[in-house]
Amino acid sequence: MFRSKLKTVTLALSVTLMAISLISFPQESVDASIRGLNMWWEIVFPSLLPFFIVSEMLIGFGVVKFIGVLLEPLMRPLFKVPGVGGFVWAMGMASGYPAGAKLTARLRQEGQLTKTEAERLVSFTNCSNPLFIFGAVSVGFFNNAKLGVILALAHYLGNITVGLLMRFYGRNPKKLSREEKKARPSLRAALSALHRTRINDNRPIGKLLGDAVMSSIQTLLMIGGFIILFSVINKLLFHLGITAILAKGIEVVLALFHLPVELSIPFISGLFEITLGSQMTSQVQQATLMHQVVITSFILAFSGFSVQAQVASILAQTDINFKPFFFARIIHGFTASFYAFILWNPIYERFYNTEQPSNAIPVGFFGDYSLFGKMLDGLATAGPLITLLALTVYTYVLARRLDRN
């Protein structure tokens, strides 16, 4: 009872403090809101919308079930999740946060995952996509796209490590028989599962497509709200001096790992929002490039409270517990930083570190006109148009459905 009352008072005081801060720093709050809105408007919405819509349709047509049957002999022994987890994992890496959580929640609602399996799966299928790592962080912030190789390797190796560790989480409701353990991928069984799933979901194609668009845009609107909110919170914490206070404690930890204490404030900012934290880390002149990469790897893996709040909101629609996901983010942060540290000399120093200064963008595949650079520039240019078009379609479909009801 006391803990419940304490929680109520804490939440009320926090919201009141935020309201007072918004009034005290109106211009800073507006600037932070615009920054968050631009990020969602130009990058997040247009990059995630196609993945979300296609994923919903793949689930409805039974393709995910088909993939799940084929990948069952791989995913079950490694991560103790059904074969459909392979689809979630691949889509999570391709599209980025929080696609893994959305697909895991969707499959849980479909009954294709148990509660424990869903908690294992969501812990390692939420990660940054290659476009963000290479385009936004490496090229945009560090002006050195070759760093994307180290950041990506550390990020995804840490992700795999989390998946292997989380296989020990929870108890299995049933033990697999000897025949199930020795089962091999069967194309016939996969095709049969695909057909059964499509028959059971008897929605017409138009209805399925409309549901996919509606569900995807509703999720992205929620994501946009969280991005704007945490962008403002991060800015207010900085102006209130709370970030500096928290940084004092982080300085002690950084000193233990022989990292520059000047990285403490970027680290704190990254705990709330990964984009701002990564950008601030790249601007710390007192740190070496390796130190910056180690901290950035932690920030990308931890994914920030902004992304975690998005995941918590998605998981709240199911019975999936959020705590294992949060615990996995801490593990991912440390493992990604560790991999970045041990891979720095054998990979970056040996193959990529030239006499070129670190603030110069190298020529070639990762150069000025690299694939990732072109994709990021194109997304930023066409992103607002795609967002407007999608929101227009969403408004039209929603109005039609309200008229019918």
Automatic annotation (TrEMBL):
<feature type="transmembrane region" description="Helical">
    <location>
        <begin position="379"/>
        <end position="399"/>
    </location>
</feature>
<dbReference type="InterPro" id="IPR011642">
    <property type="entry name" value="Gate_dom"/>
</dbReference>
<dbReference type="InterPro" id="IPR014226">
    <property type="entry name" value="Spore_IM_YlbJ"/>
</dbReference>
<feature type="transmembrane region" description="Helical">
    <location>
        <begin position="326"/>
        <end position="344"/>
    </location>
</feature>
<dbReference type="Pfam" id="PF07670">
    <property type="entry name" value="Gate"/>
</dbReference>
<feature type="domain" description="Nucleoside transporter/FeoB GTPase Gate">
    <location>
        <begin position="220"/>
        <end position="316"/>
    </location>
</feature>
<protein>
    <submittedName>
        <fullName>Sporulation integral membrane protein YlbJ</fullName>
    </submittedName>
</protein>
<feature type="transmembrane region" description="Helical">
    <location>
        <begin position="293"/>
        <end position="314"/>
    </location>
</feature>
<feature type="transmembrane region" description="Helical">
    <location>
        <begin position="208"/>
        <end position="230"/>
    </location>
</feature>
<keyword id="KW-0472">Membrane</keyword>
<feature type="domain" description="Nucleoside transporter/FeoB GTPase Gate">
    <location>
        <begin position="44"/>
        <end position="141"/>
    </location>
</feature>
<feature type="transmembrane region" description="Helical">
    <location>
        <begin position="148"/>
        <end position="169"/>
    </location>
</feature>
<keyword id="KW-1133">Transmembrane helix</keyword>
<keyword id="KW-0812">Transmembrane</keyword>
<feature type="transmembrane region" description="Helical">
    <location>
        <begin position="48"/>
        <end position="71"/>
    </location>
</feature>
<feature type="transmembrane region" description="Helical">
    <location>
        <begin position="263"/>
        <end position="281"/>
    </location>
</feature>
<feature type="transmembrane region" description="Helical">
    <location>
        <begin position="121"/>
        <end position="142"/>
    </location>
</feature>
